[in-house]
Amino acid sequence: MTGINKHLDLLKSLSPEKRAEAIALAEESTKAFSFIPNPGKQTEAYYSKADILLYGGHPGGGKSALLCGLALNEHDRSLIIRKQFSDLQGVIDCAKGIVGDDTDFVGGTRPKYYKEDGGIIHFEGLGVEEGIDPSKQGTPHDFIGIDEGAQLPENAIRMLLGWLRTTKKKQRCRMVIASNPPLDTVGDWLVDFFGPWLNENHPNPAKQGELRYFIINADGHSQEVPSMEHVVIDGKTYYPHSRTFIEAKLEDNPYINAEDYRRKLQTMPEPYRSILESGNFMLSRKDADWQVIPTQWVIEAQARWTPKPPEGIAMTAMSLDPAGGGRDSAEIAMRWGGWYDKLVSKTGDETADGSLSAAEIVKHRRDACPVIVDVGGGYGGAVMLRLKDNGIECEKFDGRITTGLGRTKDGQLEFANARAAAWWRLREELDPSQEGGSPIALPPDPELRTDLCAPQWELTKRGILLESKDEIRKRIGRSPGKGDAVVMALAPGERVAKRKHSKFGMRPKIIIGYANRRK
Question: What is the pTM of this model?
Fold first, then answer.
């Protein structure tokens, strides 16, 4: 209540005439509003000029109310989204509370509110695999509000942005993502998408409310640019949009007893209590009980990364996780011993026939290293043909193979298939408790971290089995292609590299390079 009390004290300090004048002016300027934002961060967020705003942090900061208030006051056609339809009731109740009655609300499976000025607010739950509902396509809205954005994958948000538009003159278009910090890997993309504000290691941090400008480049990733002026990259014109972050603070919400709210938060189990209490999007979370690779191991491997590979070690292996022209990216991983370079990503139609992926491999390949291609999805065959036509040694990786897989390093467990064996080998190499520590250094890529920390496993009669890619896709909104590429470059790549150098009588120290790096 601090913000409200400050303004009330200021009002009380005025003379009776000036106080009456100020009250009358406030009432006149806001009489057409259904919603008036609270002083402080909510007001700052309400008037932000950003095309995409993240209003988040602490629970109880008035995030849902901001979405409803903007839709009621400032926009013509609005869409307010939750992950599941069943989650919408709280948002709808918030809107009804602001309006004061439910006369113009329509319920059912497509709830909506008809505004007096002729505008409309749609309330929808995505509730579909990968968070992409084809029914949203072609339905324009000038305001899209995402409630609890950390529960939705990035590709769902990007799909919705494609329909953020209007034909109404002078009507502003914007998206507001209201969210607490992510409690699992699904929301990790927020730290990357709003990196200048949320990522503590960002090289060029931004202040809250400061506008920064971005494009989505040819690789499908966010790229910061200097201004809203269009940019031309490799002959293609890109039109930037602005982003910012404003912290939602419990103290700025006069409608909630902050002390009582905190008392309720403290009944939650750790680490969720600490995450929500802190409002810190970078705070580490508890891993899933059966997570293949612990998150902290990946964080440490990324902290070990340097911009250049270690001296004296040749390129060990390359690997390709193909896409076949679909929504997912084709990913190429390259490693020198335990050091991995930044991944090369290609998306869309340019990956359809394998020619571009093959060209990228030719472009980046060094030291005649072997190339591993994933053929499990049926897309790798075309790439292998093109590589072989160019005289490049390549070997297929099929995660469905069930024989000749060996055991875990301690000899205790077998593997159900080659995919489980390959992922487990990376887990073992990332283990910091091994003699000399882990030799793996991974590029500081938030998407790679999410990929590597997403898969979970179970112990079956056949041995260790990873959950299907479809299950992972449902959780993070895409295939873990970067993780798959990194995995293939390690154990399968190591096996081929050793065989190649053994054939020519060469010592494998330039292949592995682990012992050299530990000394």
Answer: 0.64
